[in-house]
Design a protein that fits this description.
The chain is of the alpha/beta class and about 400 residues long. It has eight helices and nine strands. The protein has helices at about 5-20, 70-95, 165-180, 185-200, 205, 230-300, 305-345, 370-390; strands spanning about 50-55, 100, 110-120, 125-135, 140-145, 210, 220, 355-360, 365. It has a five-stranded mixed β-sheet. The protein has a two-stranded antiparallel sheet with strand order 6-7. Helix 6 runs antiparallel to helix 7. The protein is globular.
Length: about 400
């Protein structure tokens, strides 16, 4: 009669063999959270402007396992694409004034939203969102996670956004937080934005209007006269600044439009490849472990005095070797899928090219970062302000 250890080993092999034959087919459905709509009759002085900064691609968050589904080039493109999707969503809510993508080094928008890509592979999207305002007050830092359904990438819905629920939840949270502000607090925040912009051009003229509390948040100390000619010039300069930032919106809109087709195709294939890779990896691991267990059980049985048990042990060794080989074959197949994903990711490289935008009296080439270009534009505005006021640039 076989020993207890041999029976246990036999049961372990049987269970592992059963597991190796099972495949997980999870069907997820996507249901977008409804957007909280704003009041269309809200006065203009109660509408806060929102600046969504280009996202951090989060390359440091890519783990070794994710490397098969993620390329730095794709993350860099997503860092531009995701803010565009969020801006479109916020604009539809009716809660805000102007909603723009802004360079990272501007901090004079009423509300500032920053994002970091934690995970993105077509099947799953995880974003970390940080929201704050021009007073230096931090609203919150939260993570948002979304899972795509296989139906998201079917041809019957080619224009749908698989992760629209993520953007809707972000928009709703921002609207709820904004609802905590009184009308007076909203007007104060708008004034702080204007005075911070003015101070960045002339500390000499506007340096005493704001103060910072012990938490580093800006508060109004005093207000300039409404008819102050210096303030009027600053408002004119600020409109020119808006012109530049609005021009950038055309660039991001065009980028998103051109990226949309190949990116959706990449996400569709990445979704399929990610699931296939996971299943093959699991099968490979299960078959390899089952094979090792079968060999160990076979070795133990081969040492038995019973002829039948020895024969069964030989079969177990051979079967275990076959399982291990099958596991290695599965790993090889999974690597083929990984290579396919890398090739798909490389197809987006051509979409990330420099853009040229025309302003009124000059042409700006965005061959570097948008932040660099915006820094140059700010220097031009400071020169204009200095020339108009006869002041010395700070």
């Amino acid at each position: 009669m076989p020993s207890r250890s041999l029976r246990a080993a036999g049961w372990m092999v049987a269970i592992l063999l059963l597991l190796s034959g099972c495949a997980s087919n999870t069907v997820r459905t996507t249901s977008a959270t409804p957007i909280l709509s704003g009041d269309p009759s809200m006065p203009e002085d109660q509408l806060l402007d929102v600046g969504v900064r280009l996202f951090d691609p989060g390359l440091e968050h890519i783990e070794e396992e994710e490397d098969i589904t993620t390329r730095p080039e794709i993350r860099e493109a997503e860092a531009r694409y995701f803010p565009s999707q969020l801006v479109d969503t916020l604009q539809r809510t009716g809660h805000w004034g102007a909603v723009r993508i802004v360079p990272r080094n501007t901090g004079f928008t009423d509300v500032v939203v920053e994002g970091t890509i934690i995970e993105s592979n077509g099947e799953k999207l995880v974003l970390e969102i940080k929201a704050g305002d021009s007073s230096g007050r931090e609203w919150y830092v939260r993570r948002y996670e979304g899972l795509a359904s296989k139906y998201s990438y079917q041809g019957t819905r080619p224009t749908s956004e698989p992760f629209q629920d993520v953007y809707n939840r972000i928009a709703n949270d921002l609207a709820v937080y904004r609802g905590r502000f009184s009308e007076a607090a909203i007007r104060e925040l708008r004034t702080i934005s204007e005075l911070r912009f003015a101070e960045s051009f002339s500390r000499e003229a506007f340096g005493g209007f704001l103060k910072q509390n012990e938490d580093g948040e800006y508060q109004i100390a005093r207000l300039p006269a409404e008819g102050d000619p210096m303030l009027q010039r600053i408002r004119t300069i600020r409109e020119r600044d808006y012109l530049f930032v609005d021009t950038l919106q055309d660039y991001y809109t065009d980028f998103s439009r051109r990226m949309g087709g190949p990116y959706q195709e990449w996400r569709r294939q990445s979704f399929e490849e990610t699931i296939a890779y996971r299943q093959l990896r699991n099968e490979s691991t299960t078959r390899t472990v089952a094979g090792v267990a079968a060999i160990l059980a076979g070795i133990a049985a081969a040492g038995s005095d019973n002829g039948s048990t020895r024969a069964a042990g030989t079969v177990g060794i051979l079967g275990g070797a076959a399982l291990i080989k099958s596991g290695f074959d599965k790993r090889t197949e999974s690597e083929m899928h990984a290579e396919a994903m890398r090739e798909i990711g490389g197809s987006l490289d051509a979409e990330i090219t420099p853009q040229v935008i025309d302003l009124q009296d000059q042409t700006v080439t965005l061959s570097g970062t948008v932040d660099d270009q915006y820094g140059q534009w700010r220097q031009i505005l400071k020169g204009i302000y200095a020339q108009e006021t006869g002041s010395i640039q700070d």
